[in-house]
Structures are given as C-alpha cells and as structure tokens.
Design goal:
The complex is a heterodimer.
Chain A lengths: L1 H31 L6 H18 L4 H29 L4 H23 L13 E4 L2 E4 H23 L1 H11 L1 H6 L4 H27 L5 H16 L4 H18 L8 H15 L11
Antiparallel strand pairs in A: 1-2
Helix pairs in contact in A: 1-5, 1-8, 1-9, 1-10, 2-3, 2-4, 2-8, 2-9, 3-4, 3-8, 5-6, 5-8, 6-8, 9-10, 9-11, 10-11
Chain B lengths: L1 H26 L7 H17 L7 H23 L3 H20 L1 H4 L5 E2 L5 E2 L2 E2 L3 H23 L2 H11 L1 H6 L4 H27 L1 E2 L6 H14 L4 H18 L6 H22 L17 H11 L8 E12 L2 E12 L3 E5 L6 H8 L7 E6 L2 E2 L5 H7 L1 E3 L12 H6 L10 H6 L1 H22 L14 H14 L4 E5 L7 H16 L3 E5 L3 H7 L2 E6 L2 E6 L1 H5 L2 H8 L1
Parallel strand pairs in B: 7-12, 7-13, 10-11, 11-12
Antiparallel strand pairs in B: 1-4, 2-3, 5-6, 5-8, 8-9, 13-14
Classes of the chains: A mainly alpha, B alpha/beta.
C-alpha cells in the first residue's frame, strides 16, 4: 500500500510536469496548427539560460526562472517569425513546416551541445528540500512542479477566458479564417501564443534543471511527451492537455508496479498508440465530423 | 583508397534507404518517421539469425525482409485511420519503442553492447570482408532495390499512390482501395529498408541500437527532401551528397565531438534552406510521359464510351436514408430513384442535405438507417471504392483533382479494373500490364477527346484554367466507367460560354443511357438540363417534379428564396 501511495504521488508529480509541457505545446499547436518540434530545444535552451543566470550571473533562482522564460519567449517568437511564417505565407503544406521544424530541432540541439558541451549542467551548491509525509517522500522541486502546473494553468485559463488577447487566441483556435474575417490579426495572435507557450516551457525546464540538471538532449523527450499529452488529452483544450499529461504520468508511474524500470519511457508511447487507434479525438476531445 | 571505397559503400546503403523512404513520403505522401526502425529490423534480423541460428546468406536477408515488410504492413493499419500530423507522432513513437526494445532486450539484441561478430558475406568462398570487396555487392543490392522501387513507382500502382497523396478521398472516389495501397507501400518501403539494414550488419559485422535512432530517420528525410520527393533518382543524389558532404568537412580540423554535431547542424540548415528555396528538391518530380495514340485508334473507344444503354430503367435508388451528426439531423427520410438516360437535379437551400445525400449514396458517410440499391443489388455499407467499381461514381464540389499530376494521368488513374493496381501483377505479369497500359492510353485519349481537353493532356492539373479543371473533373468521372454519375455542382462559377461547352457533354452522356444526378443552384441550368428535379430541404425531398412544375410552386419559391 505504501508503495502504491508513493507511486501515485510520483505519478502526480511527473504528470504535472508533462501537463505543463503539454499546455505550452498545445496552446501553440491548437492555435497555429504548427507541429513545433523546436519546442524541445527551446525548452533545453531555457534550462541552460536558467543555469547561466543562476550559476554564472549568480542570480537567485526565481529571477533565473524569469530570465529563462524571457529567453524562451524570444526564441519562440523568432522561430515563428523567421521560420514558420515565411512557409505559411508561401502556402506550404503542413508537412513542409513540420520538416522545417525538425530541421530547426537538430540545428538548435546540436548548437546547444557545442556551446555548453554534452555533459550535464547543474547549479552549483543547490540543494533541494526533502519532505516525508507519512511513508511518502517528495522533494521541494517536485512540489514546485505540481504547484507550477496548477498555478500557471489556472492563470492561463483566466487569461484566455477574460482578456481581449486571450479571447482573440480562443477565437483563432476555433476558426482562424473566421477570426481573420472579424478583424483579428492572426499573425499577431500566433506570435503571442509562441511567446506564451515557449515562456511556459521555461518553468518546467528550470525545475528539471534543479532536479536532474540540464543536458543538450533533454528537449526531445520534453517535446515528445508534450505532444503525446496533447493528443492523448485532445487537441484544443487546456483541460485536455492537463488531463492527458496527468494520465500519462499516472500510467507511467503505476506501470512500474509491474513493469521493469527500463521500459518506463516506452509506456507513454504505448498509451499514445492505443489512444490514437481507439479514440483519435483524444480522451477528452470533442468528436469532429 | 580504402576510405573512398568505404564512403561508396555507405552511399549505396543510404541510397537504398533514401529510395525506400521516398516511396512512402514522396509517392504515397505518408509521413511515417520510423524508417530507421525498419532499417534496424533488417540489421538485427541478419545479426540474430546468423549469430544465434547460424542461418546462411541469403536466408537471413530474405527472412529479415519478410519480417520487416510484415511489420511495415502492420504500421499501415494505424495509417488508415490517421493522417498527417498524427501519423508523424505515432511513427515517431514506434521509432522510440523499437530503439527501447533494441536497448533493453539484452538477451536478444545484446543491449547497449550490441551484437558483434556477424559473419561477413561470403560468395563462393570469397569473403567480402573489406570495403573494396564489399562494394560490388552493395552496388548490386542498390541496383536491385532501385529497380524494385522504380518498377513500383512507375506502374499504374505508383500512379494511384500519387493520386492518393494528392487527395485521398478523390482516389477513393475513382475506385482505389486505400487500405490495400497503404499496406502494400509500407511493406515495400520497410522491406527495402531492411535490405539496407542487412547490408549494414554484414559490412560492419556489428549492430548496435545507436545506429538506428531518430537522427537517422531525419538524416534519411534530409536525403529525400534534398534530392526531391517523388523522384527516385533524386534520392540517390540526395544520399550521395549527404554521405559525401560530411566526409569532406572532415578535412576541416575540429575536435571530433564538435565535428559530429556540426554535421547535424548542417543537415538541419540544409533541410530548411532547401524547403525555403527549392521545395521540390534538386531533381523535381516528373510525370512519366507517355505519348497519346493517334485519333483513329480512339474512335472505337469513343464510340464504346457512348454506346447506348437501355433507357428509363431504375439504376440507383436510396430508400428512407437517415443521417445525424450529433444533434444535427442532416438527412431524414430521404428517398431517391434515379433512372438511366435521365438527368436528375437536386436543388434546395444551403444545409438542406444535398451533399450529405451524395456522401451517403457513395459510401463516403455511413448511414444511420436506410438502404441503397444499384440495379437491384444492395450496396448499402459498401466502401466508396467498391461502390465506384459497382457503377456509381461521384464528383466533388471542390473538384479535388490530382493537382500535381497531368490531365492525362488524372484520367488514366481513374480507369477501372487495372491489373497494374495490384503489386503482384506489377512484378509478375509485366507484359499484361504493358498491354493494358497501351489500351488505357487509348481509352484516356477517348475521354480527353470527349471533354475537349486533348490539347492539355500533358499539362498538370494545377496549370489548367478553372473551366478546364471542371471539364477534367467530368473526364475523370467518365473514366471510372461507372453507369451512374453524381455531379456535385459541376457547373458553378462558370460563365455562359463554358456552360454551353459542358451542357452538350452532359446531355450526350444521358442520351447514351448513363444515369446522371446533379446538385445545382442555378435554376437556368436546372431548367435547361434536368428531366426531373428533387427539391431538398430539412434532409428530405419536399417536392419532386419537372423543373417547370417545381419552379411554379409558390410554396417552394418562398422556401428557396426566403
């Protein structure tokens, strides 16, 4: 029973991490329909930015996190403006954009590896707190992952529902053509979602830096799990991405009960297979005819 | 020297991979990002079969190809239901799982250590254990693989693949079985990649999971894109450039670690630059030019096409058709009876269910209830391609031409009963296919003559004028050889002169005994063309009669023009 409780909590923690990644990626994907693979290396870049701010500049960690978010947002907007937008204007098919995105993915990932080296980076002297609640163990960073997911998703939800810009984003997600007709500048909206989505990824990136350290290849799993969370949960809804991320985390963690550790990372992909085959609109998505 | 020979061997291996990948991406338009996984299956099959079971060449190769082709065919099954982005994610996931298996199933794959000591190829006691000796074998393998891919790509099956790539529903609407095509092309692509994998294992005498990661798939993708999607020669060029280019960069002295990374950066940048500046790649796709036969040969077929059928017989009928989308009732209790030799019009306000009715009649949507019969045969629930083959074909309001294919190809792909659509026949009955293609050309010519597009035969559909596109839609529909034609707004957006060109074509078809049903908004057109008109609203026929009867009905007038 203790083991189950611990696995459940681990699932919740990892699930929150996946969910937040999914929220950032899903916002971009649902609004622009761009499969933004470069979300992965931008996530990595954010982790290194946080490392740079904390370790080299000696800034406190919350400030480093904000710095990382700013770096990610700028990279995201640049990517949209100079990579995706020209393709969009040239009426390229979505496959072309996707391949270009994969191209950027390898460029950025390897650039980061050349600049920072392939070894992991950690913030020197950083120690996270450890909590024991009954038989259950978790760290302050893990607590941070859950809190970050809850707070940021809630804030994003309010922003989308209440503000003018948020509503413009929702309208564009719903029907880009109609949004244009009623006078929404969809290019501006796209830039905005790239900024927000990328900035959001910087928070889980910094937390992973604190937890495990940063490596140049950490982005692949991040973008992949984000994508999987969005598809499992259902494209186009915040709740879907959160539910998808949490579901993945839970299945992965509880799966450990019976499945050897080295297969853990494959579980998510098997869930993806099943969902895509059996319920392509996602667990929580609406049926689109 | 040894070094150059080694590079050439690698060019051969990647040449096979790029060609196999191009079949999927370039011809079939299936963006499945798991090619390195198929490559891995081939390599591990050879490694495991030779090391653990001691099987000799070519048993390991053949088994590896068969197993991988089978796995490829399995991957095609999700590709039926999902497309585009989803296919990319699912296949990426497959790629990741395969690598996880290769890394973790230590007993079978040697885990991270890989499998060593795979015996070199041995031909008549002559061991191919260095690059110079291996190269001829690699070239032969490349030659065979290229031939297989080329044969497939340039067959009627390849033409159908390209049609599917351009528009899946339109390919179905001309009678192509998408399931069969996807399974077949996946099996071939995977099988060919397995040949490359087997070569790799035999050449390096070692197989390890790190050689088959996602980077490899992207590397192959870069080759295909650089060379040109839909051009197999291009894939060879792409493979050669991307294998040789990084080798040249080795002369720039960099620490090895940075050198490897910078190669990957170059691939990435190259991908982006190519896509920006020359998305068709170095060698663009070319249509297989075939020469149209002379007019005299076509008269027979032209006559055949309009050979009179008995008139006034019931052909297609739909009885009490129902369809709901969630809470919205699209079609409710719709009845329709179409007769040979007559032109039936479907009119009604937007959202009345006209196009939905067509979709139901042709199997593109499944019925909630009701039955559809064609010449007394129940065709309810048949797949679209089987309904076309049975004799009921439809066009689409938004045309859905195969835009990157020529007018001639658009027509040829639609011709019925092509043996060349079956891969077995492509490889084992070449003469039959050859004869059939000659015959198909004659028929296609007759169709193009009939719709007046012969002079545009070699023009790609995207270069046609709007009126010509509409004519080609009619031609493609005719080519299916169906008896019943359902036209979804074939005349909308055309000026009077063009209308005057199309009217006689449609009339002629009806006079020859074909059954025609047209969705149309222009009442002048309806008046001039139709024998019977159905007025649809709220999902069923509100009134049926001659054009005059309906237009003089004041109740309908207020409904339609409200």
């Amino acid at each position: 029973m203790d083991l189950f409780a611990q696995l459940f909590v681990n699932g919740l923690i990892n699930g929150s991490h996946y969910a937040l990644l999914g929220v950032g990626f899903g916002l971009i994907f649902a609004t622009t329909r761009i499969v933004h693979f470069a979300y992965g290396p931008i996530f990595t870049a954010a982790a290194y930015a946080a490392w740079f701010a904390a370790n080299v500049l000696g800034l406190p960690i919350p400030v480093a996190m904000v710095f990382a978010a700013a770096v990610a947002a700028v990279l995201g907007v640049i990517t949209y403006q100079y990579l995706y937008l020209p393709f969009e204007r040239g009426q390229s098919s979505s496959h072309v954009t996707l391949i270009a995105s994969l191209g950027l993915f390898i460029v950025l990932e390897n650039l980061i590896a050349i600049i920072f080296g392939t070894g992991g980076r950690v913030i020197d002297g950083y120690q996270y707190g450890i909590f024991l609640v009954g038989p259950i163990y978790f760290s302050s960073v893990q607590l941070g992952q859950v809190i970050a997911m809850v707070v940021l998703t809630a804030l994003l939800g309010v922003y989308l529902a209440r503000t003018r810009h948020g509503k413009a984003i929702l309208a564009t997600t719903d029907n880009p053509e109609m949004a244009r007709i009623i006078g929404i500048d969809t290019v501006k909206v796209s830039r905005l979602v790239f900024a927000i989505g990328s900035a959001l990824s910087a928070i889980p990136a910094t937390l992973i830096l604190l937890k495990d350290g940063a490596t140049p290849s950490m982005g692949f799993f991040a973008v992949f799990i984000a994508f999987v969370a969005v598809i499992v949960g259902g494209v186009g809804s915040l709740r879907g991405a959160v539910a998808g991320g949490l579901a993945l985390g839970m299945v992965e963690s509880l799966g450990l009960w019976k499945i050897p550790t080295e297969w853990q990372s494959s579980i998510a992909f098997i869930v993806l297979f099943l969902v895509v085959l059996l319920r392509p609109q996602g667990l929580f998505g609406r049926t689109v005819s | 020297m040894e070094y150059i020979l080694h590079i050439l061997v690698m060019v051969c291996i990647y040449g096979i991979l790029a060609v196999s990948f191009n079949l999927l991406i370039g011809f079939a338009g299936l963006f499945a990002m798991a090619q390195a996984a198929f490559y891995a299956f081939g390599a591990y099959a050879t490694a495991i079969l030779t090391l653990k079971l001691g099987l000799p060449f070519p048993v390991d190769l053949l088994l590896g190809v068969l197993i991988t082709a089978f796995i490829g065919a399995l991957v095609a099954i999700p590709a039926i239901r999902i497309s585009g982005t989803y296919l990319v994610v699912v296949t990426l996931a497959l790629q990741v799982i395969v690598i996880a298996i290769a890394t973790n199933w230590k007993d079978l794959t040697g885990g991270t250590d890989g499998l060593r000591g795979i015996p070199s190829l041995n031909i008549f006691g002559y061991a191919l254990d260095n690059p110079g000796r291996f190269l001829p074998a690699a070239i032969v393998a490349l030659g065979i693989c290229f031939w297989v891919a080329w044969r497939l790509a340039n067959s009627p099956f390849g033409r159908a693949l390209r049609a599917m790539r351009e528009n899946e529903s339109a390919a179905e609407a001309v009678g192509k079985n998408l399931l069969y095509m996807k399974v077949a092309v996946f099996a071939f692509s995977a099988g060919l990649a397995a040949v490359a994998g087997s070569l790799f294992a035999r050449y390096l005498n070692y197989v390890g999971a790190e050689s088959f990661g996602i980077d490899e798939t992207i590397y192959m993708l870069a080759m295909v894109i650089l060379g040109g999607t839909g051009n197999l020669w291009g894939s060879l060029v792409g493979a050669a450039v991307l294998v040789i280019l990084p080798e040249l960069l080795k002369f720039v002295t960099l620490p090895t670690e940075i050198a490897d990374k910078s190669h990957l950066i170059i691939y990435g940048l190259l991908l982006i630059v190519i896509l920006r500046l020359r998305p068709e790649g170095l060698l663009a796709e070319r249509s297989t030019m075939r020469h149209l036969p002379h007019v005299d040969d076509t008269n027979r077929h032209g006559a055949e096409m309009t050979a009179p059928l008995p008139k006034d017989e019931v052909t297609l009928s739909g009885n009490d058709l129902h369809k709901r989308f969630g809470g919205i009732v699209a079609v409710a209790g719709f009845n329709i009876v179409l007769k040979s030799g007559s032109i039936t019009g479907l009119i009604g306000p937007n959202g009345a269910g006209k196009t939905t009715a067509f979709n139901l009649l042709t199997g593109f949507l499944s019925l909630d209830s009701g039955t559809i019969t064609f010449r007394g045969r129940n065709i309810t629930g048949l797949k679209p391609h089987n309904i076309v083959r049975a004799g009921v074909a439809r066009s689409f309001q938004d045309l859905r031409l195969f835009t990157k294919m020529t007018a001639l190809e658009n027509v040829m792909v639609a011709l019925p009963n092509q043996a060349g659509d079956r891969v077995f026949d492509v490889f084992f009955r070449p003469m039959k296919i050859h004869r059939e293609e000659q015959d198909n050309l004659v028929r296609a010519r007759a169709v193009l003559d009939f719709v007046g597009l012969t002079h545009k035969a070699y023009e790609t559909a995207e270069n046609l004028s709007y009126a010509e596109e509409k004519l080609l839609v009619v031609g493609r529909l005719l080519a299916t050889g169906a008896e019943v034609f359902l036209f979804d707004e074939p005349l909308s957006g055309l000026d009077r002169t063009t209308l005057a060109e199309i009217f006689p074509i449609v009339r002629k078809l009806a006079d020859s005994g074909k059954t025609i049903c047209i969705i149309e908004h222009n009442l002048d057109v309806i008046k001039e063309l139709c024998d019977v008109v159905y007025f649809l609203d709220e999902g069923h026929a509100m009134a049926i009669g001659t054009p005059d009867q309906l237009m003089n009905d004041p109740a309908l007038a207020t409904r339609y023009f409200k």
